[in-house]
Amino acid sequence: MILVIDFGSQYTQLIARRIRECKVYSEIVGCNADLSKLDPEKVEGIVLSGGPGSVYDIDVKKYRKIFTLGVPVLGICYGMQLAAQLFGGKVKKCRTSEYGMAPLRHSGNLLFKSVPRRVRVWMSHGDVVVKVPADARVIARTETTPIAAFQLGNFYGLQFHPEVRHTRYGMQMIRNFISEICRAAKTWSMQRFVDGEIMRIRKKVGRDRAICGISGGIDSTVAGTIAARALGKNLIGVFVDNGVLRLAEREEVEANLGSIMNLKVIDARDRFLKKLAGVKDAERKRKIIGHEFIRIFEAEAKKVNNVRYLVQGTLYPDVIESGRGIGPADVIKSHHNVGGLPKRMKLKIIEPLRMLFKDEVRAIAKHLKLPPSFIDRKPFPGPGLAVRIVGVVNPARLSMLRQADRILQEEARRLSRYRDIWQIFAVLLPLGSVGVMGDRRTYDSVCAIRAVHSDDGMTADWVRLPHGFLDRVSRRIVNEVKGINRVVFDITSKPPATIEWE
Question: Considering 22, 44, 125, 163, which one is annotated as catalytic?
Fold first, then answer.
């Protein structure tokens, strides 16, 4: 296997999945794990992830064991800086942090086999290596980062992130490390993953029963399908109408999923909106929604004998952004089904997809032969429109956003490249804006449009939507939705922004 050591990067699991794309098995361990127990007979290579910390603030000597196993090591961002500091190089804080695309030029090293000498890469760092260790050689540079990559024996360090899709030929660099340098065995597949999860769920649940939290999206549907194959009639699907769904979403879910599994629909609109009344903070919204979902699932579980487990469609980006990964990651936002869960729960959680990304889940959906309507559906956050309304959530603001988003989706589906867009949605801002309509002054709300390209939700770039499309959407929203008099377009990538506003 290839071992990935997590230093708290938002992209650690992304590294592991890129390795899986090479059909090579990979495991992640935290940077505080006992590395003395590593078995060199099982490890074919090691990858050191990035991280939010600084290597000059820690004792890097405790990681020397990594470099004594005799296997190739790839250090990415923080991982490169750690090796430089450990072996006598020097790391300093950048005068200006670097985020986004940068043009790279490399020297033709084996790590860059079949990669053009000039290529664009994705940077995301606040520190930089300013001096490499003795006997190391610089193998790549950018205009602002003279040491963008270096090699020292069987260690290879990259200041940029090859694991993100925005790095051109990044997958080729990882493939070169896995196949050309580590010569790792190709033994991993989606079929093995599904079979393994079915066996794991059967073993864990035994003769008990489980309920599956269903949202109607691909994540919960795939998780529920895997669990249903493991448990059969001992799985009950529960869909909760929490009052912050999109227009007609409840009806769509009932129509699409009622024939796939035993589905129970709970109307909890009043309950959720009462709990959310007056709440402005996004973290509180997420946690309120997460707690209420669990309490409803627990109440439903009491109505059926032997229900002790809850199946969720949690993905790894949810885990990472909630600060619940393996390494010391920052909390970006507490996802309702991870950081928003109550500390004490009566149901035990089963998350078949916890270590996967959205595009991997889509691949599994195809493997399971689920309908294209699920596979192609745009991602929608578990807390729903509550996190697409910045500020207070109430029926009036929900109505405005639902109407604005309906217009946006109607127009978006007419775009020739609609299927290539990862997400496109409307956000209602807590701003008043002066306008003039029919020669009269208005002071109404502002609506933002967000559209991004992505493969896995970990990084994203804004979509260059046609001006004619933006013009039509803007005119329709301000003309048809009472209470909105201004429309703006978000042109920020991830990072530094996230895809959702809250």
Answer: 163
